[in-house]
Amino acid sequence: MIGVDWGTTSLRAYRIEAGGAVADRLDRPGGILTVPAGCFPDALREAIGPWLAAGETRVLLCGMVGSRQGWVEAPYLRCPAGPAEIAAATIPVPFDGAEVRLVPGLTTEDASGIPDVMRGEETKLVALATRLDDALACLPGTHSKWARLESDRVAHFTTHMTGEVFAAVSQHTILARTSAEGPERPEAFARGVRRAGQPGGLLHHLFGARTLHLMDRLEQAETRSYLSGLLIGHEISAALAETRAAQVDLVGAAGLAALYAEALRIAGVAVRTHDPDLVAAGLHHIGRSLGWT
Amino acid sequence: MIGVDWGTTSLRAYRIEAGGAVADRLDRPGGILTVPAGCFPDALREAIGPWLAAGETRVLLCGMVGSRQGWVEAPYLRCPAGPAEIAAATIPVPFDGAEVRLVPGLTTEDASGIPDVMRGEETKLVALATRLDDALACLPGTHSKWARLESDRVAHFTTHMTGEVFAAVSQHTILARTSAEGPERPEAFARGVRRAGQPGGLLHHLFGARTLHLMDRLEQAETRSYLSGLLIGHEISAALAETRAAQVDLVGAAGLAALYAEALRIAGVAVRTHDPDLVAAGLHHIGRSLGWT
């Protein structure tokens, strides 16, 4: 089978053998934002044509290609959901010469009944869930996801807009003056994480990043790391307050995963880190539930 | 005496009679950011020359003119501080033909020892404190101030970066797509305020403004008001958790004050609103402590 992670800014495709081994892969720009309406079949054929010519007949797509801005909208599937439920909810799309299906995103509601959504992460989580017993997984990023995994399924999850708020606040408020990019400052990051555990609230804590500098208690070159620690610390406090987990399974790019691991350590939580390259394995698990392998 | 509130973007001057009545006033652009280094005396004379020519000899300045970016830096004065302490900490600046002094800003530390600062608001608060018994005052805005007033003095205060975070998040994140300016939507604002009182944390609640819209449970035209309620609600929750006040004295421009009054009502707190035009009265109180009137 062929698995494709087709996101907003990139397309990653995998030729996957029946046992799950990745025989070939490609990674290119050409995210869905570059594809004109009606041109998704051509764009897909352009990317994976050689593998189709070599005999592949089944293609499973995940990511934003299944969103309202993508090829066809694959409606969100309600949690709990694992490979079987997700496979049953995949959406077929017309394509000459191969069976092509879209993986749906997932939806859930928090304790207050407010909806949450993910699209793309469900495929990584399917792969992670099959490797772990019940677990709390954290996928840090622009929109960080915290997911409760139970019996190979995604039982529940919450999103925190941490990465995007960090970018907006560090570039578009008074803190921008002192938040230019530079080397990580681990001690300042740790101060920010610890600060997040104190009373006062995030909106007050943010102003402290300015006043500490004004009072010569935080160097200009430390402010960005302090702010990063503050926001990640608030995310972790809120996520752990909801779940009361003693261990977190962390899936992210190396640099960001290291920051979250340190922040979780400060919060007194055990951490296991995982290779973030999980999409092909997740697509294979869903493909198996479809009877494709 | 002459009182001047000289901020970042504007200059407001008051000719104040001995009893405190404002005999004349002017309000113009020409904030400190428009004044080249070394040109503050000329800029001041240009604004209030006619009043000097008419016999005024004492000028008291407050606001960002006393900051590092202003005329001369007037160091922050530690709380508690009232008219007497502030008068004693004013800074003289050289000026031909009149005695000119700068009002210092105030500083305090929160329960965790993190510093906080204000510059300009102290003058309004001095005026408010003389009219009230002990009170908790809220001055909403870009950097909202919550000040505990005791015995005519500012005993303590905290800053929340609410207005600036609202601007950054509503313009520079995924929420910008649905947060265009439009008429206030009071019901959506109230939903945001109530949401702030639920578990999950601000970074999670922010993402809910997107998912509620995605799930057709919040209209696009409601998103901006919902976001405003969410942030103001978080500010109020944090400020009240610190102080446990049952009543708040609100000082702000009409539109913003109305939003805060509604959010405080939802939070179950009594509100008194005050005319925000307090600077001249505050400058007069400090001038009286200087023996000027």
Describe this structure in words.
Chain A is elongated. Chain A is built from nine helices and 14 strands. Chain A folds into two domains: 2-123 and 279-289, 2-keto-3-deoxy-galactonokinase, substrate binding domain (Nucleotidyltransferase, domain 5, 2-Layer Sandwich), CATH 3.30.420; 162-274, 2-keto-3-deoxy-galactonokinase, C-terminal domain (Nucleotidyltransferase, domain 5, 2-Layer Sandwich), CATH 3.30.420.310. In chain A, the strands form three sheets. Chain A has a six-stranded mixed β-sheet with strand order 3-2-1-4-7-6, with helices on both faces. Chain A has a five-stranded mixed β-sheet with strand order 12-11-10-13-14, with helices on both faces. Chain A has a three-stranded mixed β-sheet with strand order 5-8-9, with no helix packed on it. With 293 residues, chain A is of the alpha/beta class. The interface between A and B is large, with 48 and 47 residues.
Task: For this entry, give a set of tags.
six-stranded mixed sheet; Nucleotidyltransferase, domain 5; alpha/beta; five-stranded mixed sheet; 293 residues; homodimer
